[in-house]
Design a protein that fits this description.
single chain; alpha/beta; Urease, subunit C, domain 1; TIM Barrel; 2 domains; 17 strands; globular
């Protein structure tokens, strides 16, 4: 399909960070063919035309770290740090989660992401048996761009790692002719994965030319355990395994020494900041300024739904900026423009997709979103970058275009029956939470909630 978007405010995120007033974009066969002023670009014909008057046009947002299997746990828990939450909520939930549920769980997550302006996501799915074939079906149905993988861990059961690696290898083969889907190996964390498994996934990623996705230095407890058991922190330990490289995406990276930041920079490791998660779980604050100043690529993620309780990258951008300002007692510690880079072009760099997505430039894939600027909430527009980051939410996203296809228009998803999805998700969530005994477990932990009568 050929598509012309005209009369919009184009936030290109290109190398010059151009913002084009009364701009237009021409899309042919899923790629951007022209970007410029409407009076120049609109002379080209197109099968479909979108009048973007009163709208901003941005590259699709990239959620560089998440766990879609936890979608139905949003708004469930509070007041627990990571490990207590995992024992009290996540593990009982995973034991009750059925394979047939996973399709609807993942579809709910993808629908929410598309609805809030996310056109590409990097997922680490958790399930106790092969599942990536189901996630592939979800992505194909809803039209989002996905970089997928699954937990690989062997601390409790060595057979789990073998199963998860086999599932990942099968997905790599299945996705060879699916350009919107890439697969990564996902060793879970140093506390749940042996050095042998990290080494195995490193070897396989290099062999099959795919990336790696892991958690790293998320909590102070993790570092304390590593220093006690291994005599070194997480970064130094993974470096000793020759795990690092430009194809590694590491989520969190909060508890870092200066010499570890140098290692990450030297090895080209990509970092994903998850401000909502880090705040809610009281995990800590990423040394964002030090990482960026060292030349480390930092992207942005929502993490799992229970930690951000939404899939809203606008809120993630705002929190990332505010968190650095207050933590460093420096109002200039982070900027709106920097936050937009984390959510777009840096996300593309983290996933090694910067030649394809992350900015609105000729030759790139046509992944873009339209933001309605006409409402009271976004008026007046004094500076578009600052307005989007400090005032925007996913609710202002009017349309989402992925691979040149319109997957949401006028805030209506075109690939998913939203009424059916809402009904299915609510039913499954109520059943899972009840059957897993999560409410009782939370009460035993002293977590209070209001009673519904």
């Amino acid at each position: 399909m050929n598509l012309l978007i005209k009369n919009g405010l184009i936030v290109t995120m290109d190398g010059e960070r151009r913002v084009i007033k009364d701009g237009a974009i021409l899309v042919r066969d899923g790629r951007i063919e022209e970007v410029g002023k409407t009076h120049k670009v609109s002379k080209f014909s197109a099968e479909e035309v979108i009048d973007a008057r009163g709208k901003a046009v941005l590259p699709g947002l990239i959620n560089s770290h998440t766990h879609t299997h936890e979608t139905l746990l949003s708004g469930v828990s509070d007041c627990l740090e990571l490990y207590s939450w995992s024992d009290t909520v996540l593990q009982p939930y995973l034991k009750s989660l059925r394979r047939e549920d996973c399709y609807w769980v993942a579809l709910q997550a993808c629908a929410q992401m598309i609805g809030s302006g996310i056109t590409c996501y990097n997922d680490m799915f958790g399930y106790n048996s092969p599942i990536l074939d189901v996630i592939i079906k979800v992505i194909e149905r809803c039209g989002i761009r996905g970089v997928i993988g699954r937990y690989i861990r062997d601390a409790e059961d060595p057979k789990y790692a073998s199963m998860a690696i086999s599932d990942t290898l099968a997905a790599i083969e299945q996705c060879r002719d699916k350009p919107r889907i890439e697969v990564r190996f996902c060793p879970f964390t140093v506390l749940k994965c042996s050095g042998e498994t990290y080494g195995k996934t490193r070897e396989l990623a290099s062999k099959y030319d795919v990336g790696l996705h892991t958690h790293m230095a998320e909590t102070r407890k993790e570092i304390q355990i590593m220093e006690k058991e291994k005599g070194k922190g997480t970064v130094e330990y993974l470096d000793s395994l020759d795990f690092f490289g430009p194809d590694v995406v590491a989520a969190h990276a909060i508890w870092l020494k200066d010499e570890e930041i140098k290692i990450l920079s030297d090895k080209g490791v990509k970092i994903v900041h998850n401000p909502s998660s880090n705040m809610k779980l009281a995990s800590g604050v990423i040394p964002l300024r030090k990482l960026i100043d060292r030349g480390v690529t930092v992207a942005l993620g929502t993490d799992a739904a229970p930690f951000s309780d939404d899939w809203d990258m606008f809120i993630a951008m705002r929190l990332a900026t505010y968190l650095q300002k207050v933590h460093n007692l420096d109002a200039a510690a982070s900027t709106a423009e920097e936050a937009l880079e984390l959510a777009t072009i840096n996300g593309a760099k983290a996933l090694m997709l910067e030649d394809e997505i992350g900015s609105l430039e000729v030759g790139k894939k046509a992944d873009m979103i339209l933001i309605d600027l006409k409402g009271v909430g976004l008026t007046p527009i004094n500076d578009i970058a600052k307005k989007l980051v400090f005032c925007g939410t996913g609710c202002y996203v009017d349309a989402s275009i992925i691979d040149g296809e319109i997957v949401m228009e006028n805030r209506c998803l075109k690939t998913v029956d939203e009424s059916e999805l809402v009904e299915k998700s609510q039913t499954i969530a109520e059943d899972l939470i009840e059957s897993s005994g999560i409410w009782k477990s939370l009460e035993a932990q002293g977590v209070k909630r209001w009673k519904v009568i």
